[in-house]
Input
Amino acid sequence: MRKDFRIDFLEPLEAKAILISIGQTKLNLDKCIPIKILNLSCGGIKAESLLDVPMENQIIAKIVFEFENHSYQVHGQFVWKENQYNRLFYGINFIGLTPLEEERLRTALNNYQAQKIQQNQKMKIHKINMRRNLKPLIRLIKALPQPVFLVTEDRKIVDFNFAAQKQGCLLEGTCYKNVWDRPDPCPFCQLKKAKDLTHFLDLNLPVEEEEYFIRWFYLGDGVYYHSIEKAEKSEN
Output
């Protein structure tokens, strides 16, 4: 197994970083920096944080997180920073992992990957059954002019219409990643509320100078109708 074997998370892991040193200066801080782990390997993590950490000096931190029913407290060095769409991402390399810690983490990564493969196989079977059960409705959705997605309860896209395809939608992914380029579910998402309704759940969402009309509807069999389109601006 290569040391850089890496797992990407659809749902980021909540974690915290405790600064130990900046350059040659040792720190004695109890303050934790909340971070979200986007991917993980035995060599380190890619994380997102609201805190803008300066990278002029070497920064060492203790990374604390839970993964596969185990707690980890690993020292790491910040090695890069990226600012994308006003979101801050960091590359953190683990340092000083003992052979026992590394073996435990590698085993957890392998177990997680095996579960992910099983879930993907179940998803393929679910897609086949879903398309069979909802075939007449899918034909109708394909012809709609607005972008429409069929998503599962964990927001994975299982199908979409031609309008969504033109916008570059991909089957492998979630609606929040495909549409909004987010690593986690949208704070305004109403999908779970839609399951208990017998009508469309609608939302008008202002984003900068645009406004979006968003709609959810539970179709059954664990599948939701989800459309997102720009609202037409009214002329005053």
In short: The helical segments are 99-133, 135-142, 162-166, 175-180, 191-194.
